[in-house]
Design goal:
By secondary structure, the chain is mainly α. Helix content is 59%, strand content 9%.
Length: 194
């Protein structure tokens, strides 16, 4: 068996573990009572060890190095999003928390019905759209959370300049390769911005 195929299998295993970690994070943030918190720590530690081990290997193929760096960026993006949401939840400011929704707060962060965004999108709005885009597309995104936020800001600025609207409603349509981020100008001053 060649060294290349071993590296490819290790990279595939890391990609699988990162997807599993993301699913576990979503379950934890949704308040799943059956989720063992130790499972999150085990998966995260396993990914860290695997990434460290692959960094110590002299990879011959640029494609493998590129894929590994993309996976590492995705891993750190998920960690950052999870830590941010945990911090917001601990401070009682997480609008996506199950207890906040149960308490009657409006579900204005639903990417399928639309999220209203002003000139500066809130981290919760950006994260909700980013997570839904990733989960619906079923493939690796070409941008991280910060790049996605800049993209949204740019889109809002362009649409506001063209239409004179106060905010823009973004929503996701489709599945797989057909996922589209739709934007609609909103002129109502009383709209609840995210």
């Amino acid at each position: 068996m060649s060294n290349t195929s071993v590296i490819e299998r290790q990279i595939d295993a890391i990609a699988h573990d990162i997807d599993q970690m993301n699913r576990l994070y979503r379950r934890a943030l949704a308040g799943d009572p059956h989720l063992e918190i130790d499972a999150l720590d085990r998966v995260e530690d396993s990914i860290r060890r695997a990434l460290r081990a692959l960094h110590n290997i002299n990879m011959q193929r640029a494609a493998d190095r590129f894929r590994l760096s993309n996976l590492e960026a995705r891993f750190h993006t998920y960690l950052e999003m999870f830590q941010r949401r945990q911090r917001l939840r601990e401070e009682g400011r997480d609008p996506l928390a199950p207890e906040a929704r149960a308490a009657g707060s409006p579900r204005h962060l639903d990417p399928e019905t639309g999220i209203l965004v002003g000139k500066r999108p809130t981290p919760a709005a950006v994260e909700a759209l980013f997570n839904e885009l990733y989960s619906k597309s079923g493939r690796r995104l070409k941008m991280d959370l910060d790049s996605f936020q800049r993209y949204l800001q740019n889109q809002v600025s362009q649409i506001q300049a063209k239409t004179g609207c106060e905010s823009v409603q973004f929503r996701l349509e489709g599945q797989g390769d057909a996922v589209k981020l739709k934007a609609r100008p909103v002129h109502d001053a009383n709209s609840k911005l995210a």
